[in-house]
Amino acid sequence: MASHRLATAAGLALLLSGLAACAPGLPATVVPGTHVTVGWSEELTSLNASAAPTPGNIDVAAATRGGFGRTIDGAFVPDESFGKVSIVSDDPFTVRYDLAEPVWSDGIPLDAADLALAWAAVAGRLGDDESTPPADAETDSQALTTLDEFGRAIEITFPEPAIDWQSAVTAPVPAHVVGRLAFGIDDAMEAKQAVIRAVQEEDASALAEIADVWATGFEVTEKSEIGGDLLLSSGPFRVEQVEREAEGQTVTLVPNPSYRGAATPQVARVDLVPSGGDPVAAVGDLLDVAQVAPTAENRATIRDLERREFGVQTTHDGHVWTVLLDPAGVFADPAARTAFLRTVPARAMLENGGGEWSSAYTATTSVTTAPDSAAHQIVSEDSGFAAVLGSPSSEPEVEREAAGVAAGSRVCVLYDRGSAFAAGAFAALRDAVAEAGWNAVDCGSDDVDAAIGQRGWDAAIARVPIAQTPAELAEQWGSGSEGSLTTHADADRDALIAQLARTVDVFDARELLAQIEATIVRAAVARPLAVDPRLTLVDPGVAGVSAPDGAVAPLLGGAAQWSVVP
Fold first, then answer.
1. CB 257 within 8 A of CB 231
2. Adjacent-strand bridge partners of 319
């Protein structure tokens, strides 16, 4: 297996930190000297992923920050070794965030100050800085009703029930560090108290100082000289070093000596290094773990790795390939849209687009849920997809004519010319719909995202993100949304999305998702095809790597489970 990262020219060391001599020893699970090298295509730009939620920052935070739980396969999984979240009142809707006994890697306990700081940021209390979330009518009326310093807990009263109540508050950065940077207070407990006072008293001047630190104080740049206290961790690993060299950024993670959570690290060091031009070829030599998209070019090499007992895990990247229709022009009538979508050859598009990798694409009948999620089966069964769009038409020409669409009607189909999947899927679509009398015209683009927003197309083969929140659903499918995928307006759908945002029961939420999906099905504006695959390649010398589905923290969330095979 790979034991060292690729040697490069001497780079600029951005961040360095070490444990004090009196620091606690490493968790007993850590095997000294073990080392895993990971090919990483992201970049660490801030140690405050809440202020800068880039994919790289979120991925590192998954390994270096504890939390009340994580969303896995579409469901919230609590971590009571960090703390417990509970509803203490239904009216008014009040939630208690109660820490267990986690500590930062410098030995300072997490407490109510850390939670109050995080709440102030997400509730829009940190002023008008552009890097902090803006307050709106809903979040601005949240109230910090209880701050229990002895019990290490806070209680938040929401203006109405909130679907994200379990994850609305966490602790992304240490309050005692923020207090030191904002107010020049070196004593950790006094710094925490200063943060608490600023939040409770709504001191505008003090909150502005905190806001500046929150937004920029944890940034990682080429000119950064960040002390060890900014590298503090509450998760299983901590950032030890960040280097920038000619090939890119390297991030080194080491076990957090103070972490005693549900799963403690086993590997003594994890290096996140640039993936390079051919990460597949580097696995087993320079890399132990890498994530790649399946392509025709890497098929043979990956098959060879499988035959040599390398791990090859297939997950999805949080996107679903979908045929979208613009409800205008030739598709102004719902009957025309339905007739067209019933001729869409989903299986042929998947096979032609995926080629030798077609088996890696998991077919789906939902645009709002992923096939792995607990909600998917309910949504697929109750949305009406099978009856309305799922069965191929036995008389497609008759359906087209009944919808008032003349034979040979032009359908401008937008797709990404640079995507082998999209190009192959378009070819299969063009041939199939021609038999029903539709004329699918090649309107491929080199910038499909921009082209979708500009309209001018009738149909699009698009890679659509699977919404994770009601706000994202509203952005994609809501009436009047600037980011609407199809511009189709539906007051019932808007009302259902708003109701979902206020739903706290997971089973009720699934039923509402099914109803939301049903409005999209009835409108006949989208035909989901398959989720987009991601491959995780693992050297035989590394065990315990289990990549999650989705776009959020696709690699490092389970790093504490990794081990080196003796």
1. no
2. 465
Give the torsion sign (CA, 4, 8, 13, 14).
negative
Neighbours of 106 (CB within 10 A): 21
The total number of structural domains that make up the chain: 3
Coil/strand/helix, residue 282: helix
- Write out the H or E segment, with its range, that includes residue 21: none
pLDDT, one tens digit per residue, over 141-166 is 799 999 999 999 999 999 999 999 99
Question: 165: domain CATH number?
Answer: 3.90.76.10
Tell me the DSSP string of 62-120.
Answer: HHH---SEEEETTEEEE-TTTEEEEEEEETTEEEEEEE-S-B-TTSPBP-HHHHHHHHH
- Examine the domain organization and report whether 142 and 271 are in the same domain: no
Does one domain contain both 258 and 346? no
Q: How far apart are CA 343 and CA 327, in angstroms?
A: 17
Residue 347 and residue 445 in one domain: yes
Residues 527 and 396 in one domain: yes
Residue 258 domain flag: yes
Q: What is the arrangement of strands in the sheet containing 438-442, beginning at the earlier edge strand?
A: 12-16, 237-245, 248-255, 270-274, 36-40, 289-292, 526-538, 311-325, 459-465, 409-414, 438-442
- 413 and 474, same domain (yes or no): yes
Burial of 164 (0-12, 13-18, 19+ CB in 10 A): middle
Residues 487 and 361 placed together within one structural domain of the fold? yes
**C-beta separation of 499 from 284 below 8 A:** no
What CA–CA distances, in Å, run from 334 to 21, 109, 275, 495? 71, 59, 46, 21
Residue written as token pair 């990798």: 357
- What proportion of the chain, given as a percentage, has pLDDT over 70? 93
For the chain, the C-alpha Rg in angstroms (whole number) is 25
Boundaries of domain holding 21: 12-45+233-288+539-564
* Cα–Cα distance, 262 to 266 (Å, whole number): 13
Write out the two tokens for 378: 């309910």
What was the pLDDT predicted at 140?
52
Calpha distance 414→442 (Å, rounded): 7
Q: pTM surpassing 0.85?
A: yes
CB atoms within 10 A of CB 450: 9
**237, 559 in Cβ contact below 8 A?**
yes
Which two structure tokens, joined as six digits, stand for 199? 């939040």
> How high is the mean pLDDT of the chain?
92
